[in-house]
Structure formats: C-alpha cells, structure tokens
Amino acid sequence: MTGNRSESAEGRSPRPGGVVRLYPTAYRRQHGAEIAATLADIADAEGGWGARRETAAVAGHALRMRTGLDSARPTGRALAGLAPYVVAVAASLSAALLVVWPLEPQAWDGERTYTPLAYAPWLAVLGCLIAGRWAWARIGAAAALAGAALSVPLALWSGGREGLSQNLPTVLGLAAAATAVLAAPPDLPPTAPRARRNATLTALALGVPLLVASTTVFQAVAGPGAVESARPEPVRVLLQFAPLVLAFPAALGLARSRHGGAVATVVVAAACALVYEYGLLASVPYDAGMLIGKAGFLTGLAALLIRLALRLRATRERTRAS
Amino acid sequence: MTERPLQEPTLLLITALADAPRHGYALIQEVAAISGGRVRLRAGTLYGALDRLLGQGIVKVEREEVVDSRLRRTYALTDAGYEVLAAEADRLRTTVREAERRIGLGRPGSTLRPAQDGAGA
C-alpha cells in the first residue's frame, strides 16, 4: 500500500501468525497486525467456520501479492479482464469434448479417450459468469481444478500411458484456465454487463463452430484411392478457431489498456521472430503454430492502429473543445 | 478519475466510507448492511481492494490505534474518492430516472410516474 501509513503501531497488536506469514515480508511488516486483528474480529463474531473461510481468502490475497497478481498491479487487473475470455474458451472446448465423448468413434478417428470430470464443471462456471454469480463461478473453477487433478490418474487407469499422454495437454490446459480464474483478484469481478456480454459472445463464436465441426463426419484420405470416415478432434478445431475469434477482442483490449502500446509492440516483435524462426511454432500441436503466429502479428498490429486512431480522435476532440 | 462504471465491491466499499471513516472489520459489516446482506466482502478481497484504492488516491488512512490489543487502521475517502462516488451516484441516478420514465410510459396503470427533471432516484 502507499507509504502514508505509519508503522508506529506495529508490534502492539496481537502477533500476526499463521496465514499472515504468507504475505511478502515488507507488506507483512506494515499490514500483518491489522489483517490479523480483522481475522480475530471475524473469528470472535462468526466462530470457526467463518474464520477458516476468511483465512483462505487472506491466503489467496497473500499469494496474489507474492505473484504480482493483486488488483493494485497492472498484471492483476489484466488477469481480471482476461478471466471472462478464459472461461469462455475453456467452456467452449469442454462442451465440445462432452458432446463428442459418448459418440461412436469413426473408422479413421484413432483411439481417443476423454476425461469428462475435467470438462463438466466448466459449463457451470460459464453459466455462473453469465448470470453474474462470480463467487459461484470461482467455486466452479475450483471444482474444475479438482476434476483436472482427478482426471490424471483416471486417464492412466482407463487408457494406460497412451490415454494419459493423449489427455494430458488438454487436462493441463483446463487446469491452467481454472488456476487463472481462481488467481484473478476477487475485488474486480467480471460482473458488469459488458464483461458478461463479451463472455457470452466469445463462447458463442467459439462454441458453435467447435460443436458443429467436432461432430461433423468427413471423408479422410486413408491412402491412395481410399477414404475413411473421421471426425476432427475438438482440440484441433479449438486451435484453428481460437486465434481467429479472439484476435479482435484482444486487439481492442490492448488498444484501450494503459500499457497496451508496449504490449502490442512486444506481441508484433515476438510474432515476427517466431514466424521467422519457425522451430518453436512447429512444436504447436496440429500444425496450428503458423496460424497462431500470424494471428498474433495481426492482433498486435491492429491494436497499434486502433490505439493510434483513438489518440487522433481524442486530440481532435480536445482541439474542438478548446 | 474513472470513466467506467465502478464494480460492485468497489462501489459498496467507497459508499461505506462516505459518511464516516471505518476500520477493516467495520467495513465488512457496513458493506453487508448496505447491500442488504447480499454482498459479504472477504478479508482478502477487502484488503486487495483497499490496496488498489489507496494506490489510486481514492482512499486514505485516517488514523491507527490499538483497541483491546488489536491494531485498528481506519480508512477514509479522499476528495478524489468523494468525486468518484458522486460521479457514480450521478450515473446511477440517470439510469434509474430513465428506467422509471420508461416504466411509466410502458405501463399506463403503473404507480411509477415519469420522473420530473431532477426528481429521479
């Protein structure tokens, strides 16, 4: 916090213990006693259960402080702004995987295993977000994280090493999405109509093509003069569609954010370097690396152009007003 | 100070500070009372928001004292904080006034009549 708080009272309050020790040292020295006192007040009023919930919330704040993801810092605010999109992407993929899971495999599909425990909670998370129930959405994200953790041994048990290696990237991706939702600062919940509308539109723009493409049977070339029925994998469809769907909101968000110009420049430079040095992009599954690289370049460029246009408009309006 | 509408926890927090300076636990209680029990700020959420509002110059530390061997740090709104709250109240008032006007137009039998200028919320 700001430096206008005196530290004179430090040491006169109950010794901050337990959860307060999770804070970075400098922050704990300045605010630990105060936060411990508030926790003690809550414990007096609400008893053990309330105190445990508050302790968990304080632990979350301490971890955000340690990782630079608290709402006082730009990274935390950026994560809060990204959370609706993370939910929309994870829920779209999960919906497609849940729909494909019970379908009879086609001749050319290959062996596919699924981990529905990791997918199902995301539909509830998206529903809660759209309904403006962010606290419930966070509980759903915790369930999604637990589902992803349980899916690893289940995939190994049901599909062996092959099943595990097939599912691991998807399960890890969904676990990372759940972690991002839980890490986003809870004092900036995406409950405003705009955030909920953006999440709904992104989920529709990504989810509908994903569902349609993932359930469409097509004729795969199996050999010279031979074709077999197959369905595209939902993850492959996601990697092809997501850069196209997310490019515009990402460009707009970058153009409007305070440090968007610097970030967009870095994105353009990184995309150029990656496209030029194709090795890294080639490691992206399903040959989606080049598309992602080009989409990143165009997104950064569009953000810079939109930013310039917004600046020019603001200057023109200021000139007109004066 | 801010062009976008305030998010609900922030609005409730600075509303809770508008009439009197308050310490952490009192703020949690006040926010619950203002929202009719609908919003219950967790301590982690409260201190995250206070950090941000202190950094933005919306809130300041009024005083600190030790009560029953517990440190109480009391927060208050700054002048900029009052401006932000007044601007948000004005924005909400405009929306409410328009909503009431349209309810009056859409439902002839409604007890809500189109609001007169300046007599909205």
Structure description:
The complex is a heterodimer of chains A (322) and B (121). Chain A is mainly alpha-helical. Helix content of chain A is 73%, strand content 3%. Chain A is built from nine helices and two strands. Chain A has helices at residues 25-67, 74-100, 116-130, 134-183, 193-215, 234-256, 260-276, 279-282, 289-321, and strands at 218-223, 226-230. In chain A, helix 2 runs antiparallel to helix 6, helix 5 (193-215) runs antiparallel to helix 6 and helix 7 (260-276) runs antiparallel to helix 9 (289-321). The longest helix of chain A is centred in the middle third of the chain and has 50 residues, at 134-183. Chain A starts with 24 loop residues before the first helix and ends with a helix. Chain B has 121 residues and is α+β, with helices and mostly antiparallel strands. Chain B has one domain: Orthogonal Bundle (Arc Repressor Mutant, subunit A), CATH 1.10.10. Chain B has a three-stranded antiparallel sheet with strand order 1-3-2. In chain B, helix 1 packs across helix 2. Residues 117-121 of chain B have low confidence and may be disordered.
The helix/strand order of chain B is HEHHEEH
Largest sheet of chain A: 2 strands, antiparallel
How many helices of chain B in DSSP terms? Answer: 4
Helix content of chain B: 40-55%
Question: For this entry, what is the oligomeric state of its chains?
Answer: heterodimer
Strand order of the largest sheet of chain B: 1-3-2
Q: Show the largest interface.
A: A-B, 43 and 33 residues
Shape of chain A: globular
Q: Distance between the terminal alpha carbons of chain A, to the nearest Å?
A: 38 Å
Backbone structural class of chain A? mainly alpha
CATH fold description of chain B: Arc Repressor Mutant, subunit A
Number of domains of chain A: 3
Low-confidence stretches of chain B are: 117-121
* Strand residue percentage of chain B: 15-25%
Spatial strand arrangement across the major sheet of chain A? 1-2
